[in-house]
Write a structure and sequence with these properties.
Subunit structure (chain B): NDH-1 is composed of 14 different subunits. Subunits NuoA, H, J, K, L, M, N constitute the membrane sector of the complex.
Structural class of chain B: mainly alpha
Family (chain B): Belongs to the complex I subunit 2 family.
Shape of chain B: globular
Shape of chain A: globular
Oligomer: heterodimer
Order of helices and strands of chain A: HHEEHHHHHHHHHHHHHHHHHHH
EC number (chain B): 7.1.1.-
Mean pLDDT of chain B: 86
Number of helices of chain B: 20
Helix content of chain A: over 70%
Low-confidence stretches of chain B: none
Largest interface: A-B, 34 and 33 residues
Largest sheet of chain A: 2 strands, antiparallel
Enzyme class (chain B): translocase
Mean pLDDT of chain A: 84
Largest sheet of chain B: 3 strands, antiparallel
Radius of gyration of chain B: 22 Å
Low-confidence stretches of chain A: 499-510
Distance between the termini of chain A: 35 Å
Protein name (chain B): NADH-quinone oxidoreductase subunit N
Strand order of the largest sheet of chain A: 1-2
Number of domains of chain B: 1
Helix content of chain B: over 70%
Chain lengths: 510, 514
């Protein structure tokens, strides 16, 4: 049984994109074909999951390694651990959801815009798989840059009035980060064993770097990831992008792609530069804290629905980074679980916002009010997503947020206390948003339809994920925990005593 | 010095590619003289293409087995020389295909009917009425190509200077032959000529100083002289720097770049592509040999200067490209920035420096020619539409051409899976491995700045509104031009996805004969 699972996951959406792009001009099959391909990819992804062994001691599974550019030491090397597999599955689930939600975003005219739109989504899916599955630093960099292109066009061709500015801002921020990382990528190769496969992650972990080299290279990587997983003060591209992009594009961008930032911190910053990671921790935790509080405060003040949701994400990314750099098992597992949960939460919020905007035509929260009387189902889903966003016990985010705070508390009590303030602020911005949009007297307006069958189909998996991950996170935690343990081993951090029992069956404190 | 004159042995077989090109060019001159106006184009084009193909075949078949120093060691036929000569021939082939574009005869082509007549004069009218066509571009281009091939294998300062003049003089003429905006074209030609003469004078001055220092023009002798101490040490560094001025002028490095935008804008667009791609290859090839063979021993003296020039070139090229509104000028400034990137690789001074420089030159050449070819095809009311605003909405009207251009822009920006990225990676890693990390950092930041302008062009094409475009449209190109564009795009993609074969070639040939 030697199926190249990951290559299939990578190639299938690309083939789909090509097929969609080449469909005849007047074809009505664009959307069904695109959805079919994304579902087929999801099926392959579930197949790959069945082949994944959570108890294996290997760092990466389902690996495929072929020489690609031996002169540079580059291999085409794919493999997954618990974290990357979870992130890939998150993407695989959210892409069909977004396709359903974006069904009527672009009318089928004869200018092939619809072809382009769905082909770009499939291309995005492929780059998403690639970036999480690459276990060769150079290959990771290739996908890291390549995924900018579909997003750039998705925002630029299908966004709002200032879409070009938003797309260009997004591109330049990411590109600057990426190019700074390129220097570090070259540097880490030169510091490593070199040779024809010198870019493999496994050949670069545990290097004996000089302190200065390690810190410089760490910074090169970290800057790129901090821009990607927008941390204060380099988060400014995100609100603009979210405001101008289609809500479904934002779901994929913020829900999945930006997780490359936090994923990269675990996979590269921590694993390759343990000493530098420890050295930078105070500053990074400080930045994470600022991101958390500033993001939340700015979210409270927003009147633009999409900007508001994007600021909540800045705040949540602060949480995730904090969990990663707490260097405790609980914090790490909480942070990685948070990455998944945040994907679903953001998806719920953006999809509902998209539905409201499609019905009303305005992004401004002040134009709403009393919508629970007009569209009770949409309002219900909005409330549900908002509850997930403020980490209501029993919904998905609660588990991860709780674990992050516990994990941080074990090592940095003061930070954990301030983080708890972020939790309170989250309740504030979420409830304020719901109140302004959904409560109040019935608005004077023409009848708008409530959620259609297609929209219900689109949000159903997201709502299911809220409940599943809220009540029964264990399967996901079991996949995540070994990977987090592995990365903590790289850093050489041991959990501080006394260990606090966690939500996992195994507990922590080895 | 002996008083016995011995005729130098010349390896005619090894020099066959060069000889073929020059013979083809001279035959072209004869054709200009004796063939009738109607048959000229039909004779010249096959003649020049056949010359290049034949020369390339001769190079591939005979080159590898005939390496060595020849003609009293004034010529080196070694790995880098062969690779760069082959590259020059291939790029020249594509460049000539683009130059041969007649736009189906329905629209005026790129070249004026009478280059010698002053714009708007009666002579010009007469030539236009008689339907004259300018076919002397083919032999001129061939002569220039011959000079370039000589340039990359010259192992002697005097021969280097001769080659420099042979490659430059035809280019000065070609620059002045644009059909539209004659005055601009002639002005560009004059500027190029004057500044080029200046730089040649600098070059000669440097060469004489080095001769004074080493007592010989041969690179090998100069290298040997650097190793030993002579009484003329004060001449060495000024000589090297003055020589470098001449070479840096040719590649358009800052602060010797002033001519580039004006000349690139004024020249007929196919010629611009030809110049931007191939002249860079030749000039960097010569620079590699001078720096690695002749004056490598004094590198501590000149490396900081070249590093400063590289940094300046990248920054100035990138920053000034942002404020341009003319596509040809944008590409001109971006070519300045790219010259800076090549310098970053060149400065590494090891084998990786040679191979990465050669790879970058190949990648850059194969994206530049098709890019200018596409610029030539985008026309509005009978002449080229080079204002960025005129390109708005091109993606909707000519999706294939816009897609090809967008892809080339991604390559210019150095996005992975294009040759541009592979090349950048090669030069930056060569530089970093030799401790020039700060140059690489400046390089990546400059890359990000240039990316802005490339993506702006992409955005304008795909997202711009048609309101300001007028009747801009892409003219259907001939089969030859189409082939040139497609070949360039395919190579650009190929070197991004599967660069190994060319990297192998570049690495296995990256050793100069001394």
């Amino acid at each position: 049984m030697n199926v190249p699972w990951l290559t299939t996951l990578l190639v299938l959406p690309l083939v789909g994109a090509l097929v969609v792009a080449l469909l005849p001009r007047a074809s009505t099959a664009v959307r069904p074909v695109a959805l079919g391909f994304s579902l087929a990819t999801l099926a392959v992804g579930i197949g790959a999951l069945t082949q994944y062994d959570t108890g294996s001691g290997e760092q990466f599974q389902l690996t495929e390694i072929h020489s690609w550019i031996p002169q540079f030491g580059v291999s085409y090397a794919l493999g997954v651990d618990g974290i990357s597999l979870t992130m890939i599955l998150l993407g695989l689930i959210l892409v069909p959801v977004c396709m359903l939600a974006a069904w009527n975003d672009v009318p089928a005219a004869d200018d092939r815009r619809q072809h382009t739109y769905f082909a770009l989504m499939l291309t995005l899916l492929a780059s998403m798989v690639g970036v999480f599955a690459a276990i060769d630093v150079f290959l990771f960099y290739v996908f890291f840059e390549a995924m900018l292109i579909p997003v750039f066009f998705l925002i630029g061709m299908f966004g709002g009035a200032r879409r070009w500015k938003a797309a260009t801002t997004f591109l330049l921020y990411s590109l600057v980060g990426g190019l700074v990382m390129l220097v570090a990528v070259i540097g880490i190769y030169l510091a490593g064993p070199r040779g024809t496969d010198g870019f493999l992650v496994e050949n670069l972990t545990g290097l004996d770097l000089s302190i200065a080299t390690g810190r410089w290279l760490f910074m090169g990587f970290f800057i790129a990831f901090a821009i990607k997983a927008p941390m204060w003060p380099v988060h400014t591209w995100l609100p603009l992008a979210a405001e101008q992009a289609r809500p479904t594009t934002s779901v994929l961008l913020i829900g999945v792609l930006d997780k490359v930032g936090t994923y990269g911190m675990i996979r590269f910053c921590l694993a390759l530069f343990p000493e530098a990671s420890q050295w930078a921790t105070p500053v990074i935790l400080g930045l994470a804290l600022v991101s958390m509080i500033v993001g939340a405060l700015l979210a409270i003040g927003q009147t633009d629905m999409l900007r508001l949701i994007s600021y909540t994400s800045v705040s949540h990314f602060g949480f995730i980074v904090m969990g990663i750099f707490a260097f405790t098992t609980v914090g790490g597992v909480g942070a990685t679980l948070y990455m998944v949960n945040h994907g679903f939460t953001t998806a719920g919020l953006f999809l509902v916002a998209g539905m409201l905007i499609a019905r009303h035509g305005s992004r401004d929260i002040r134009d709403y009010g009393g919508w629970q009387r007009v569209t009770p189902v949409i309002a219900g889903v909005l409330l549900f997503s908002a509850m997930s966003g403020l980490a209501l016990p029993g919904l998905n985010s609660f588990v991860s947020e709780f674990m992050v705070v516990i994990g941080v508390f074990q090592r940095y009590q003061l930070f954990a206390v301030v983080a708890a303030v972020g939790v309170v602020l989250a309740a504030l911005y979420m409830l304020l948003m719901y109140q302004r949009i959904a409560t109040g007297p019935r608005p004077v307006m023409a009848d708008v339809p409530d959620m259609t069958g297609r929209e219900k189909l689109a949000v159903a998996p997201v709502l299911a994920a809220f409940l599943l991950l809220g009540f029964f996170p264990k399967p996901v935690l079991d996949v995540l925990e070994p990977a987090v343990q592995q990365s903590l081993q790289h850093v050489g951090a041991t959990d501080p005593a006394p260990a606090v029992d966690t939500a996992t069956a195994e507990g922590s404190g080895r | 010095m002996t008083d016995q004159f011995v005729a130098p042995a010349i390896d005619y077989v090894g020099l066959l590619p060069l000889i073929i090109v020059f013979v083809g060019a001279l035959a072209g001159v004869l054709v200009e003289g004796f063939a009738g106006r109607r048959t000229r184009y039909a004779v010249q084009l096959p003649l020049s293409l056949a010359t290049l193909v034949l020369a390339f075949v001769a190079l591939v078949v005979l080159g590898p087995d005939n390496q060595g120093l020849t003609a009293a060691s004034t010529l080196a036929l070694d790995g880098p020389a062969l690779v760069l000569q082959g590259l020059i021939l291939l790029l020249a082939l594509l460049g000539l295909l683009v130059m041969s574009e007649r736009l189906g005869g329905t629209q005026p082509d790129a070249f004026t009917q009478s280059g010698a007549a002053s714009p708007g004069s009666a002579e010009e009218d007469f030539a236009v009425r008689h339907g004259a066509t300018t076919t002397e571009v083919f032999p001129l281009a061939l002569l220039s190509v011959g000079g370039m091939m000589l340039f990359v294998s010259a192992n002697d300062l005097l021969l280097l200077f001769i080659a420099l003049e042979v490659l430059s003089l035809p280019l000065y003429v070609l620059t002045g032959l644009a059909r539209r905006r004659r005055l601009l074209s002639q002005e560009a030609s004059l500027k190029y000529f004057l500044l080029g003469s200046f730089s040649s004078a600098f070059f000669l001055f440097g060469a004489t100083m080095l001769y004074g220092y080493a007592g010989s023009m041969r690179f090998g002798d100069i290298a040997a002289a650097i190793g030993s101490s002579s009484g003329m040490d004060g001449l060495l560094v000024p000589g090297i720097l003055l020589l470098a001025v001449g070479l840096l002028f040719k590649v358009g490095a800052v602060p010797f770049h002033m001519w580039t935008p004006d000349v690139y804008q004024g020249a007929p667009t196919p010629v611009t592509g030809f110049m931007a791609a191939i002249t860079k290859v030749a000039a960097f090839g010569a620079m590699l040999r001078v720096l690695y063979v002749a004056v490598e021993g004094a590198r501590l003296e000149w490396q900081p200067v070249i590093a400063g020039v590289a940094a300046l070139t990248m920054v100035v090229g990138a920053v000034l490209s942002i404020v341009q509104t003319d596509v040809k000028r944008i590409l001109a400034y971006s070519s300045i920035a790219h010259a800076g990137f090549v310098l970053v690789g060149l400065i590494a001074m090891d084998q990786a420096g040679i191979s990465s420089t050669m790879f970058y030159l190949a990648a850059y050449g194969f994206m530049t020619i098709p890019a200018f070819a596409i610029v030539f095809l985008v026309r509005s009311s009978g002449s080229e539409a080079t204002q960025v605003g005129q390109w708005a909405g091109l993606g909707r009207r000519s999706p294939w051409v816009a897609a090809a251009f967008s892809f080339l822009m991604l390559a210019f920006a150095g996005i992975p899976l294009t040759s541009g990225f592979t090349g950048k990676f090669a030069v930056f890693s060569a530089a970093i491995s030799q401790g020039w990390a700060w140059l690489a950092v400046i390089g990546v930041l400059a890359s990000a700045v240039t990316a802005y302008i490339y993506f702006r062009l992409v955005v304008v094409m795909w997202l711009g509104d048609d309101a300001r475009t007028g009747d801009t449209a892409v003219v259907s190109p001939s089969v030859l031009t189409t082939f040139a564009i497609v070949a360039g795009v395919v190579v650009t993609l190929g070197l991004g996805v599967m660069p190994s074969p060319l990297l192998d070639l570049a690495q296995s040939t990256a050793a100069f004969l001394r």
